[in-house]
Design a protein that fits this description.
By secondary structure, this protein is of the alpha+beta class. The chain is built from 13 helices and 22 strands. The chain has helices spanning about 45-65, 105-110, 120-125, 135-140, 145-150, 155-165, 175, 190-195, 220-225, 240-245, 300-310, 320-325, 365-390, and strands at about 5-10, 15-20, 25-30, 35, 45, 70-80, 85, 95-100, 150-155, 170, 180-185, 190, 205-210, 215, 230-240, 255-260, 265-270, 280-285, 290-295, 335, 355, 395-400. Helix 2 (about 105-110) packs across helix 4 and helix 11 packs antiparallel against helix 13 (about 365-390). The protein is globular. The two termini are about 40 Å apart.
Amino acid sequence: KDYVAAVDCGTSAVKAAVFDLAGNVKGSSRKECPCRFLRDGRIEQSPRLIFGQTFSCLKEAVERSGIKAGQILSLAISNQRATVICADHRGEAIGNAVSWQDMRGLQALQALRGRISDGQYYGITGLPNNPVFSLGKILSFKNTPLHKKARRFVLVQDYLLKQFGAHDFFLDWSNASLSGMFDVEKFRWSAEILRLAGVSESQLPTLVASGRKVGAVSRRAAQSCGLLPGTPLVSGGGDQQCAGIGAGAVKAGVAELTLGTAGVLLACVDRPRKDPKMRVTCCAHAVPGKWEVEGLQNAAGACWDWLGRIVDGENFAKGFSRKVFAQGPGLQDALFFPFLAGAGAPNWDPEAKAMFLGLTHAHDRASLARSVLEGVSLETKSIIDVFADLHVPIQEIRLTGGASLIEGW
């Protein structure tokens, strides 16, 4: 058995691939899995679409690889983090998945601040008290019909592993780090935060390290995913931690910048490195015994996609970026603030809104697009400045994510 299969379930698409043990891709596939952006600000995904596209995408990748299913050693999952799915007593999803971009937990977290200070919360979790993380979404369900039906609150990785055949919901430490309930130094659910939030550990997934066998592909799943029944299921990691591993950001001086739906700058550290000003996060890495310092931008590539939908539809990405980069930087002082889903690091303002500033009759689509890219880039620069302030060394930045394919960036 010389091959492994992997799935990445992102915010807008599912990707699957079959690799040999040297990391060479033998077959891959991608399928769209978009969010629904509701007018009241909610951002949701269909769990049925998530696992349907995941199974279909994996089956297509296996077929394209030409590899026999019996040669595939195991399956692991990388995924968007902090997105919450409610499950009933049978482990089936109830309602839609609430995206990490959804800010509906703001009021509930304000109430939590009366029981634990932001400093104490950050000291335990390595995260600011912010609704981008899972806890705010779970608290927002309280006193709703959804909460009364829910028996478990799970994330995307553990939900998919169970759909493939795991007997329970298993979540790795790197994903749990973005839940807002995880003790980042002790690698366990924080009893104090759970008590203050009114959430029981039995309602949450079982925690495991990355790279652990957590079950096997069931006969029912095998019919749809292209793998053999009994193929081992292995805990993977959060999408950003896995991107860090793939980009080689596992040693001092090398940082990885993902420009996907979100923008994330990540650097590996040997011990928890927390920011006294709570501007960036400290999470468990998917590398055993390592942590990572991370600056999350809530919208990066999402800003580019949004502008494309508004101004040019399907033609936006077809060579249009060449016109954007033909213009000089700071063109006519048009500014874009990239807060389509609130502001993440380093400001952490869930109520921030995106805006264009300084527009005149002279501006065209290309100048607006240039200002969007500059706004995202300057937000990244502010995160790099925080890393420098914390003495997290960066000698090299390696770029990943869909927006890295924008011609000229």
